[in-house]
Amino acid sequence: MHRNLYPATAPKIVNVPVVIVMVGLPARGKSFISRKLARYLNWIGVSTKVFSLGDYRRRMLEGSQFDHSFFDPNNPNGMNIRE
């Protein structure tokens, strides 16, 4: 007889913290994939959270709009706010 290579048992999930970071160009689906991955992991029983740096920055700066100079390393005011 043959041995069952794929037994019908639930996978054992190890409770170890894992961080997944999505980086890339704007409008390439990072948030979409992050939310879908979190939804799937929650569905199989893994507790997840999705964080958005952009949302965090807007909350901390009270919705202020900044241009690209905010991220310039030679901008001391921007450096202080980011820290």
Automatic annotation (TrEMBL):
Keywords: ATP-binding, Nucleotide-binding. Gene3D superfamilies: P-loop containing nucleotide triphosphate hydrolases. Pfam families: 6PF2K (PF01591). One of its GO terms (molecular function) is 6-phosphofructo-2-kinase activity. The keyword Transcription does not apply. One of its GO terms (biological process) is fructose metabolic process. Transmembrane segments: none annotated. The keyword ATP-binding applies. This is 6-phosphofructo-2-kinase domain-containing protein. It comes from Nematostella vectensis (Starlet sea anemone). The lineage of its organism: Eukaryota, Metazoa, Cnidaria, Anthozoa, Hexacorallia.
